[in-house]
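agent> Task received from the user: take the single chain below, predict its 3D structure, and emit structure tokens. No templates, no multimer pairing.
agent> Plan: (1) validate residues, (2) run structure prediction, (3) serialize to tokens, (4) report one or two observations.
agent> Step 1 OK, no nonstandard residues flagged.
tool_call: predict_structure(input=
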Amino acid sequence: MKRRNFLQTAALTGVIPLCTGGSSNSIPPLGPTPPLSASEQEAIATALGKKGTYNEAQATYSVPLPRNDLNVMVKGVPVPIPFGFGGWVAFKKTLDGKQTVMMSDTVLLEAEVNPLIDATHAAGLEVGAIHNHFFYEQPRIVYMHLHGMGQTADLARKYTQAIANTKLLPGVATPANQPGSAATPNQAAQSGNNATPTPQSTTPTGKELFDLPALDELVKYKGVVNGPTYKYTVGRDDVQIIAMGTDMTAAIGLNSWASLAGKQEDAHMAGDIAMLEGEVNAVVRALRDHQLEVVALHHHMLGEQPRTVFLHYYGRGAAVKLAKGFRAALDQLGKGGSMKH
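)
tool_result: status=success, residues=341
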């Protein structure tokens, strides 16, 4: 559904559906999202003990929470943490500006899942989803989405309380896990909410490992180099997704992405496609036609309108071939498809 059509429908029905969290059912203003103030941004950084990046265009403050303490292999091959094992938390105002919404994707080992569920509920926040992003990974990695609504500083304190006993929080994790420097504004703007700063080293970066101009020409977007990886993040500007009274955009988790690791002729690709219900099977077919493996199909949010489905995929081979598969999946979006059954 186009942004304009969705807003017209909302106006006619007199309600924009919200997730649980205690906001009114009246229509928020349909203008741009009010910004987070400098003091609100500082309150988030103070609560977490780590500075993030403010994406002014999307009015979203995000903090990367990578699991650099982990050593992950996919199909027996070591892969870098920025390939797909970076968590995040993001804060954004509701459209009426009265409250702030927090969304987070956390990267966990199996034994860490239920303790974090309990801590999340004890802090007054909610769990939105628990699922995989990969097949074949060792150790097994689980992704848990958390959300909440309230005043910015209080919400940041609640989130910090929830993750206090995990390795997501700076100071609790191993020293290398949470580098204190935030992503550059350019990284954050391009990579949505998943920018995961990597400590500098002599290891070749994605710029040396991949033919970036050739890949960009195929994908029709420019990606971001993050250590030995190269990542594309693409928002859904053709639709407006509302959850908890907030405009969901790329910087707060509403995006499709593709991450490359390895090298040009022997690459891994993992990613996620954000779809409306009617787009799901067209995307599945496009990925399978390009020999990319579908590894998960699920939700990330609760109560969003229109309903949004996320598909995770994985592939191994020449980077050009993998990029063609990602582009083919993107080509299925925004066509106004519907379910056949």
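agent> Step 4: summary for the user.
The first strand starts at residue 53 and ends at 55.
agent> Done.
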